Amino acid sequence: MILSSEFETYTAALRALPVYTSLTKEQLLTEEFLIERCGPADMYYAPHNEYMNRSAQVVIIGLTPGWTQMKAAFEEARRGLELGLTHEAISRAAKEKASFAGTMRHNLTGMLNRLELHHYLGIPSCGGLFLEHRNLLHTTSLLRYPVFIGEKNYTGSNPDLLKTAFLRERSLAFLAEELCLLDQPLIIPLGKTVEGCSAPRQAGRHIGPRPLFMGVSASFRCQRAQTEAV
Predict the structure, then answer these.
(1) Burial 75-92 (b: 16+ CB within 10 A, else e)
(2) Dihedral pair phi/psi, residue 35, rounded to 5°
(3) What is the largest CA-CA distance in the chain?
(4) Contact 83/36 with Cβ under 8 angstroms?
């Protein structure tokens, strides 16, 4: 399922990027892909979080896509355009490529295995959530699109997300839109900021009776992976 039509707005700029090559910040952190700017925070477009797996049994919520994820998503989307794929196919492929890309995926898999999530799901390892058991997983971010402070990954502080109207309102709106479309999955927020926004008092009726796996943030923070989300 596609959550928005933003892809159409940026298709021409995407097509103008080189294909089958490594993209740089100079090519992506530009006015062409800038969605919104508020104070020191710049929000840029990225194609992967527009795809949603509504049948997911587990939802992992990060803070915001970091540079590694943004780069991977753009490179995959550019290949998809070259191959003539549909918007949904491109966004899905970008999601599968970019979700917790890099060492974060390995670290997250190990952490979830230690928490025995794979036993809960009846699969051999949580690594399968990113491969053959991808149908069980939906990954997303409080801030659907990448946010940078001076071209550095936004970490949830300086400015504080919950105390900054622009960031707080966007995060709660994005979260509410997705949660109301899901059917009682296990929700795993990563990081204290994400936990704060995912708590029922913040997310309100959109969380409802959904199982919320709090407390994962401490383990994940030890690996500093919450600084770059899906």
Answers:
(1) bbbbbbbeeeeebeebbb
(2) -90, -45
(3) 46
(4) no
Q: Is the peptide bond before 209 cis (omega within 30 degrees of 0)?
A: no
Query: In this structure, are residues 69 and 94 in contact, taking their beta carbons and an 8 Å threshold?
Result: no
- CA distances from residue 112 to 104, 118, 178 in whole angstroms, order as listed: 12, 8, 22
pTM of the model: 0.86
Please list the residues that pair with 187 across neighbouring strands. 59, 212
Residue 84 in 3-state DSSP?
A: coil
| pLDDT band of 221, cuts 50, 70, 90 | very low
pLDDT at 55 over 60: yes
**CB-based contact 126:113 (threshold 8 Å):** yes
Work out the average pLDDT over 78-100.
95
Tokens 């009682």 correspond to 184
Strand spans (E) along 87-197: 137-141, 147-149, 152-153, 186-189
Among 230, 228, 202, which residue's Cα sits nearest to residue 214? Answer: 202
SS3 of residue 28 by DSSP: helix
At residue 185, the 3 state secondary structure works out as: coil
Q: What is the pLDDT of residues 166-219, one digit of tens each?
A: 999 999 899 888 988 988 889 999 888 888 887 654 544 444 545 566 555 544
Q: Say how far residue 227 (Cα) sits from the centre of its chain.
A: 11
Distance of CA 24 to CAs 28, 48, 53, 155, Å?
Answer: 6, 17, 29, 21
